[in-house]
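Take a look at the protein record below with the fold in mind.
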Amino acid sequence: MRVVHALTPLQTAVLCVLAESGTNYRPFEAATLEKYREALKAAGESAEAAAKIDVPSTQAALQALQDKSLIWRASRGVYALEDASLQAVLLGARR
């Protein structure tokens, strides 16, 4: 959990949306980008920071999450949590 707590706000938003979406996760769709923005705002980030979310920033966040071994990429655009128990922890923290 120390690694999760050290994530940037965008990385945290991406990770939480992935955990919430499960197998329906589509990282670059407009609706998903909006979910990232909502997660950032809910976490207290500014509207300006939320407005900067785009495909390149999402790709960078996903790469950073892979580098930290929190997620893995099965194929292009298909991501999953590295540890299934992380999903329960993340979803429990959002309630």
Q: What stands out?
A: The longest strand covers residues 71-75. Strands lie at 71-75, 78-81. Residues 18 and 36 are 10 Å apart (CA to CA). The mean pLDDT is 88.
